[in-house]
Amino acid sequence: MRKIDVLDKGYVRLVDVMGGDLSVVNSARVSYDKESFEIDEKDEKLIRFLAKHDHSSPFRHSILQFEMYAPLMVARQHWKYIVGSDHRDPFTAWNESSRRYITENAVFYVPSPTEWRSAPENSKQGSGKPVNKHLGLHLTEDLMKLIDMGTMMYERAMANGVCAEQARLFLPAYGLYVRYYWTGSLQSVAHFINQRLADDAQKEIQEYAKAVYELAKEDFPVSLDELVKTTKDAIAS
């Protein structure tokens, strides 16, 4: 199982894979009662044709399962994409850890002083240039104080017998790391990569999209090269 660390404490882990580029080819060739056993130049040409002309069904016969460990603000953005986007692919699944049932130590995403970003000049969402380091230092310190206070109140509530599903209200939510399994077809995964590597995507979720791409491309090098429309510079940056 392959894994890539993301942000300060997060990661993406490829748990399981069904299929590869050859699966895409054979899912298409079955229409003519044909089958390939090794990827060759003709097969690569077929994959390029399928992607170019939006013949998407062959890309839905391959499945990838990921374990994601991400701040809640990233997980919820990912989840909204799962339930709200028009990617014509119902083959997605999502299961997430819940603090109704678990009481493991709370882990939070804390940007370093150089990672805080200013508000954009011409938009109500997204971010602009980094703030100055002096302000960034104060912001990091303030966030850590908030986390310490919330964690103390959470632990105190639990110690006094308050149920976990209510005690969690004291935890600062957006930076709280959550663990979840995300399973989707190759088409769904490529759609996520395209959407979340776009220039206007939140930087933190871009880092997760890059990790998903790096983990998936080993099994689908030809297909992802055709399906991912984002520039290679965005993936490498």
Explain what you see:
Strand 1 and strand 2 (10-18) form a beta hairpin. This protein has 2 domains: 2-100 and 176-236, Gyrase A, domain 2; 111-174. With 237 residues, the protein is an alpha+beta fold. A 5-stranded antiparallel beta sheet has the order 1-2-3-5-4. The protein is elongated, with a radius of gyration of 21 Å. Helices cover 43% and strands 16% of the residues. The protein contains 9 helices and 5 strands, in the order E-E-H-H-E-H-E-H-H-E-H-H-H-H. The longest helix is centred in the middle third of the chain and has 27 residues, at 133-159. The protein has helices spanning 21-29, 41-52, 72-84, 133-159, 164-167, 186-196, 203-216, 221-227, 232-236; strands at residues 2-6, 10-18, 63-71, 92-96, 177-185.
How are the secondary structure elements laid out?
Layout lengths: L1 E5 L3 E9 L2 H9 L11 H12 L10 E9 H13 L7 E5 L36 H27 L4 H4 L9 E9 H11 L6 H14 L4 H7 L4 H5 L1
Total tally of structural domains: 2
Which regions have little confidence, pLDDT < 50, spanning 5+ residues? none
Distance between the termini: 25 Å
Helix/strand/pairing category? alpha+beta
Numbering strands along the chain, what is their spatial order in the largest sheet? 1-2-3-5-4
Count, helices? 9
Mean pLDDT: 89
> What oligomeric assembly is this protein in?
single chain
H/E topology pattern: EEHHEHEHHEHHHH
Strands, total number: 5
Question: What is the global morphology?
Answer: elongated
Radius of gyration from CA coordinates: 21 Å
Q: What is the CATH architecture term of the largest domain?
A: 2-Layer Sandwich
Largest sheet: 5 strands, antiparallel
* CATH C-level category of the largest domain: Alpha Beta
Q: Work out the strand percent.
A: 15-25%
Q: At the third CATH level, what is the topology name of the largest domain?
A: Gyrase A, domain 2
The portion of residues assigned to helices is: 40-55%
